[in-house]
Input
Amino acid sequence: MKYLITILSIITFNQTLKSQKVTYKYKDNPFTLVYDGAIVKNEKGKVNIHPVTYKLNGIDISANVYTPANYDESKKYPAIVVAHPNGGIKEQTAGLYAQNLTENGFITIAFDATYQGASGGEPRHTDKPANRVEDIRGAGDFIANFKGVDADRIGVFGICGGGGYTLKASQSDKRFKAVATLSMFNSGEVRRNGFQNSQLKTIQERLKQASEARSKQSNGEIIYSGVATITDDEIAKTSTDLYREGYLYYYRTNAHPNSTFLYPTSNLMDLMTWDATDQIELINQPLLMIVGSKADTKYMTDEAFPKAINAKSKELFIIDGATHIQTYWKPEYVKQTVTKLVEFFGKNL
Output
C-alpha cells in the first residue's frame, strides 16, 4: 500500500536543508560517519569498522561492528551493545561512543532501530517502545555470535532515548551483564506529560489525536508528528537547550540523510502508555547512569536512579557543566564519559 503523508512533508535531504548552514560530514566519510575522529578506512593493527546486516523478526537491520586494534577472532573479547538516541542513527553519537569503547578493547555494535535509519520496516520512522526494546535484544543476539565475542561478557549502553529503552531491555534480558546510560530520556514520560511536564493538561486530547491518526493510518494515510525542517531563526528562538542544541546537532553540524525527528502520530498510543522506569526494580545487574549537570533532561535520570533498588551496584555520575546534547560530541565531556564507561565495563564484564 502506498502511504499518503500529511501535515509534515518528508522531502529529500538536500532540498530540506538547501541554502542553510549544514555540515555534510557524511559525504566525506566512506562509511558516512559524521562524528569527529571517525574511521575513514580499515587498517591492519588498528580499530576497524564492519558494516553488517542481519534479520530481526523478518526486518533487515543495518549495523556497524567495531573491532579492537590487532583483533584476533580466535580470542575472546567483552562486547557492548550501543543504542542510539531518539532521532539518531548509528553514524552519529552512537558510533562515536562505539568507536571510543573499541579503542579501549571492547567489541561494540551500533545499530539503526527497526523502521529507522538504514534499517528496514514500514511505515518509516516508526517509534514504538516494544520495537526499540526488541532492537536492543536483537543486537545482543547478533553480537553474541560474532567471532571473538565472549557471550558471557556483554554489556549494554544507551544514549538519550536509547538509554530509556536500555533500562527496559535489561530488566528482562540477563545476557546483559552490565547496564549504562548517558543523558537518559524517558520517551514515554515525555510523550505523555510533555517535556518537563509541560503538557499535563492535554494528555487526553493528544491520545484522542493519536487514536484518530491510527484510524487514518489503517486506510493508508500516515500523519506524522515531529519536525521535518527548521530554519536558523527558529532554532535560535527555541527556548530549551535540549531542542535548540538538538536541532543544531541533527540538522546542522552532524546532519545525516538517515536521521529524522519524525514519527507517526499513531505511535503516541504506545509511547504515552509506556514508561522506562516501570518495573525498573527488575534490574539486578550493575548500573551506571551518566548525565550532565546542566542537562535540562537530568530530571529523568534523577527520577529513575533511586527506583533501581535491586541493581547489584549502581552509580550516578555527573558531568559538571554539560548539557544533554553536549554529551554527544564535546570532546571534554566525551572523554569523561568514555573514561567512566571503560572503568565500569572493565570492572563488570
In short: Residues 331-348 form the longest helix (18 residues). Residues 24 and 255 are 6 Å apart (CA to CA).
